[in-house]
Amino acid sequence: MSSSETGAPLLKLDRLRVTFHAGTPNQRVALDDLSLSMAEGDFVVVIGSNGAGKSTMLNVISGALLPDSGRVELKGKDITNLAVHKRAAYIGRVFQDPMLGTAPALSIEENLALAGRRGLRRGFHLALNSTNRKRFADILAPFGLGLDTRMRVLAGKLSGGQRQVLALLMASLRKPQLLLLDEHTAALDPATAELVMQATRRIVEEDRLSALMITHNMQQAIQYGNRLIAMNAGRIKLELNAQAKQKLTVEDLIQRFGDASDRQLLQA
């Protein structure tokens, strides 16, 4: 049953609080009673300076970090304490480092086969057959990277952009209920970053995925997604819908965010 049928949002973060180094001189509140709801089909882009709480929020959603208090709900189900591997069937994630989302010692087709079994019983013999090999090649072909003709090449031999596109496909192969994109173009040069963002848009739109993306790239924040959120000190400081951000420039967004002195937000 979908969240639209139950009336519940796809994702609900309810008063999340995370404190690092509590009770020490280095104590820092990373999430300060953070609340956020996402509907099915939303593509939410999150910006904010370093330390704003963006990656901490994704870590809590993915299960990599337990909050001190608050709840995480997915389609109306409380998953706050659900283990990472149990969320894997519902939540896909692409990291900033292209090395993290793929297995370098496995071939392209083996990586995709592994992703195809995410949340299920492992076994290449179940996923690497002639039907799936053709399916994997057909999935790769539209991206124009030539990966569909190099299916047995090790992922460790690929360029950063090629590997990140592979990681995207792996994270979305089983059409997760939520796709988390954690600054997934930050380690790439501008041309390669644009290629990966085009691939991101294609995957999200064609598979009708719901996505939550963190970026420091203000142009990306304006260009992609139907909702834009700015975080500061563990809270949401600004939220804009698709109509509100349609005519924004980077300068407008910096002014709206109220932090024009923070040059990290101007990285492009």
Descriptive report:
It is a single chain. The chain has 268 residues and is an alpha/beta fold. It has eleven helices and ten strands. The chain has helices spanning 3-6, 54-62, 84-87, 108-116, 124-127, 130-140, 160-172, 190-206, 218-223, 242-245, 250-257; strands at 11-20, 28-38, 43-47, 69-74, 77-78, 91-94, 178-182, 211-214, 227-232, 235-241. The strands form two sheets. Strands 6-7-8-3-9-10 form a six-stranded mixed β-sheet, with helices on both faces. α7 runs parallel beside α8 (190-206). The longest helix has 17 residues, at 190-206.
Architecture blueprint of SSEs:
Layout: H1 3-6, E1 11-20, E2 28-38, E3 43-47, H2 54-62, E4 69-74, E5 77-78, H3 84-87, E6 91-94, H4 108-116, H5 124-127, H6 130-140, H7 160-172, E7 178-182, H8 190-206, E8 211-214, H9 218-223, E9 227-232, E10 235-241, H10 242-245, H11 250-257
Parallel strand pairs: 3-8, 3-9, 6-7, 7-8
Antiparallel strand pairs: 1-2, 1-4, 4-5, 9-10
Would you kindly provide a brief summary of this structure?
With 268 residues, this protein is α/β, with parallel strands linked by helices.
